[in-house]
Amino acid sequence: MKKLVFLFFNLFILTASAQKFENLAQTPPMGWNSWNKFACDINEKVIREAADYMVSSGMKDAGYEYIVIDDCWHGKRDSLGFISANKEKFPSGMKALVDYVHSKGLKFGIYSDAGWETCGGRPGSRGREFQDAQTYAKWGVDYLKYDWCNTEGLKAEGAYMTMRNALREAGRPIVLSICEWGDNQPWEWAENIGHLWRTTGDIYNCWDCEEDHGTWSSFGVLQILDMQDGLRKYAGPGHWNDPDMMEVGNGMSVSEDRAHFTMWCMLAAPLIAGNDLSNMSEATVAILTNREVIAINQDKLGIQGFKYKTIDDVEIWFKPLENENWAVTFLNRGDEAQKVSFNWNDEPVVDELNKLSPHFDENTYQLRDVWQHQSAGTTQRKLKVEVPPHDVITYTLEKK
Ligand code: GLA
Q: Of 147, 242, 299, 391, which is the active-site residue?
């Protein structure tokens, strides 16, 4: 009996004192994930090549860091319950793959699920959380995407807390990416559990669409963007709203890809590419590696941008940046080009949440067009631009 009390006491202490790993994901995580392009059709060659091309394309130098392998890597559990990679698809084993990714100067992410099975029907971590966390730590994993299929009877907050505690106990700092699609409002409880949380169902490569799969839907870029409304107050360094992985390079037009990428940067969203890195057009590389736009995303303040106003089909978004600078994006959602005229001095832009304002009536800012890579006058002059359909014009505003 004494032993039992002691055991429960220890378990209580362990659970009560466990914290997520601090100091990770201080800016939105950047990387690549296999799901959007490859789904279950993955193997070690696909993952190695993603690492190779992340380096040779310049993405690594632009800030991308994590190579994340999504669903369907799993083999069976052994007689003691330990998981390993599918032997046909990953003949060298997971440890060797992690080592390879690390040898490129990158970090490695893996995928599991809080339920009995993953969404793709592979073994989930339910009841094996501490054992799986140990395995990931042993392999050298740096990031875990933790999904929410087949979780009947589980409470999301508790289930994600269990995995957080398991990772903590395993001892290796691992970013925890919560993927329960926003169903249980993770923004309200996950700040001390995970480092990012999905806010919506799955994205797919479409500008303005919803695809009905019967029991669930996937959404286009604009739908996902609209679903971020009201969530900015929950995001900040170490805990990000995640509007899902990117579809840049997966078939939308170049302007749609550019707009999608820019809005994810304005939202301080994780920048997880989801295309085939071994086969990218120049335009795709140019979008994914635009350092001036990435700098908006990676700004140290970690403030998620906000929609200031809408004029016809054009939304005007602002994002406060370090050193009293700002970013502004004119997003044309519509099918026709839109002429915009914007007299800075007359615009009372305020970030109510952070009590910040550019005070255009008192201050002058230097405009820089971060897609054209050129300066574009100051806020003293009324801006007159034409925003192409399904596209953006984005400036950083540097205080003079
Ligand atoms: C869910 C997730 C996706 C992906 C798949 C894998 O749908 O939301 O991002 O991980 O599962 O099966």
A: 147
* Angle of the 129-139 helix axis to the 94-103 helix axis, nearest 10: 50
Specify the ligand 1 atom closest to the Cα of 201.
8
Measure the CA dihedral 121/52/31/47, to 10°: 0
Confidence check: pLDDT of 9 > 80: no
What DSSP string describes 260-319? Answer: HHHHHHHTT--EEE-S-TTS--HHHHHHHT-HHHHHHHT-TT-PPPEEEEEETTEEEEEE
**Which amino acid is located at 23 in the chain?**
N
Question: Has 41 been annotated as catalytic?
Answer: no
Question: For residue 277, which of 49, 17, 4 has the smallest C-alpha distance?
Answer: 49
pTM metric for this prediction: 0.96
Q: Is the CB of 68 under 6 A from ligand 1?
A: no
Using H for helix, E for strand and C for coil, what is the string for 194-256? CCEEECCCCECCCCCCEEECCCCEEECHHHHHHCCCCCHHHCECCEEEECCCCCCCCCCCHHH
Closest by Cα among 20, 105, 38, 62 to 265:
62
Residue whose CB lies within 8 A of the most ligand 1 atoms, among 37, 68, 118, 202, for a mutation test: 202
Q: How far is the CA of 214 from the centre of ligand 1 (A)?
A: 16
For helices 156-170 and 2-17, the axis angle rounded to 10 degrees is 100
247 lines ligand 1 (CB under 6 A): no
> Which residues contact residue 350 at a Cβ distance below 8 angstroms, ignoring those fewer than 6 apart?
356, 357
Which among 132, 142, 202, 391 is annotated as catalytic? 202
Domains defined for the chain, CATH in brackets: 18-297 (3.20.20.70), 306-399 (2.60.40.1180)
Please provide the average confidence, as pLDDT, over all residues in the chain.
96
Which is nearest to 243 in space by CA: 229, 258, 259?
Answer: 229
| pLDDT, tens digit, 9 for 90 and up, residues 347-360 | 999 999 999 999 99
Portion of the chain with pLDDT greater than 70, in percent: 96
Active site residue 71: no
